Amino acid sequence: MAASAMPLLLVLLLASPAATRLASAACASEKFPAGRTYATCEDLPKLGASLHWTYDASKSSLSVAFVAAPAAPGGWVAWGLNPAGEGMAGAQALVALKGSGSAAPTVKTYNISGYALGAPSPLEFPATELAADAGGSGGKIRVYGKLQLRKGMKAVNQVWQVGSSATGGAPDKHAFGAENLAAKGKLVLAGSKAAAGAPAAAPEAGGPAASGGSDSGAASSMAPSGGKSPNAAVSTARVSAPALLALTLVGLLATV
């Protein structure tokens, strides 16, 4: 009896939320250059992106590494915080454009006041240590930065986006598919377990023709590009535990 109970116990452990989170944490395998380490990482639920961060509550400083692949070679990636709302208007964004040839991607900051990106501008959260590289797997760009947040901030909305092209050093419009419009969530800074992927609100419906600016991406002035699927490890983790439970139970009953 004790021997037959062991497989069931193992399955229950594997099917637990903690095990599912562990299996889905593909971000943990990201290898950064020497000197870059982060306390927490999360696979973001859209566009195959991930966020790595360390929050120093005593200094209200947030060090981040955002990892995503542009929608096409020569494209761009963007991540930002929005203390004013859920979408792009009001976002304090870091945008990295693919460098030409072997040059490193360039990082620009945008304090986005509307649905046109405009020229680069300082952020509401002072940004330092900005850098980017193309060392990620699958053509991904990794964007680094340190933001000085408001004292006592515990959670803030975040947005992220990818695009396929740039013109004159400025991002072109991104796609308006479901993945792009739902690329937003809430970054929880305080608490026992920070979380990055919880949706802040329902995805905005429609594309650029919908009323006046339903975009949640890194600017609605950026070029159609196919959005990437969420990280495959997340989808696998969501179905593997129940399937494993069923298979093991069948095997357990067969031995009784």
TrEMBL record:
Main location: membrane
Record keywords, A-Z: Membrane, Signal, Transport
Region described as Disordered: 200-233
Keyword check for Transport: yes
Pfam families reported in the protein's UniProt record: DUF568
Record protein name field: DOMON domain-containing protein
Domain DOMON: start-end pairs: 47-163
GO CC annotations, alphabetized: membrane
Localization: Membrane
Keyword Membrane belongs to the record: yes
Organism: Panicum virgatum (Blackwell switchgrass)
Entry superkingdom: Eukaryota
Signal peptide, first to last residue: 1-25
Residue ranges, compositional bias (Low complexity): 200-230
